[in-house]
Write a structure and sequence with these properties.
With 146 residues, this protein is of the alpha+beta class. It has a domain at 56-140. Helix content is 48%, strand content 14%. The strands form two sheets. Strands 1-2-3 form a three-stranded antiparallel beta sheet, with no helix packed on it. Strands 4-5 form a two-stranded antiparallel ribbon. Helix 2 (57-90) crosses helix 3. The protein is elongated. The protein starts with 12 loop residues before the first strand and ends in an 11-residue tail after the last helix.
Length: 146
């Protein structure tokens, strides 16, 4: 362990465990000043923060997270309510419906039932979202007050 000297040079840094203190020769009767970190951001960081503000990147990120959660909620809506309703009415046969065309010995299969099922899912999801927006009066948020 090095010896502590009573003389402190002008540029010497005195450390005790994790704190850093600067000592100067003028501070014989006073305790050494603690160093405070420089919290000013460099110009590059200021430019980056300005870019984030100007292009509303934070709002975009929040919108992306919300959209991801809404997508998960819509999938649950479709799988929990709309698909069972279709299975009740169409007995799961709509997805399997197709027609086949024979051309010069080749078969061309058109699975129109999958498209019809997807289209009906789309329509019923739009109706469900419209009803949710109307019931909870979410359409009033965007209109400015006069």
């Amino acid at each position: 362990m090095p010896k502590k000297s009573s003389r402190i040079s002008k540029n010497q840094v005195v450390t005790t465990h994790s704190s850093i203190r600067m000592a100067s020769p003028e501070s014989k009767n006073r305790s050494p000043r603690s160093l405070k970190p420089n919290l000013t951001t460099p110009e590059v960081a200021k430019g980056f923060v300005s870019f984030l503000k100007d292009h509303a990147v934070v709002g975009l990120a929040v919108g992306f997270v919300i959209a991801t959660q809404v997508q998960a909620l819509v999938k649950l809506l479709v799988n929990g309510f709309i698909t069972p309703t279709f299975q009740f009415f169409f007995k799961n046969a709509l997805v399997k419906d197709q027609f086949v065309v024979h051309v010069n010995g080749a078969l061309i299969v058109y699975p129109w039932g999958q498209f019809a099922n997807g289209f009906l899912d789309f329509i019923f999801v739009l109706i469900a979202i419209y009803l949710i927006i109307r019931i909870f009066r979410l359409d009033k948020f965007n209109k400015p007050k006069a």
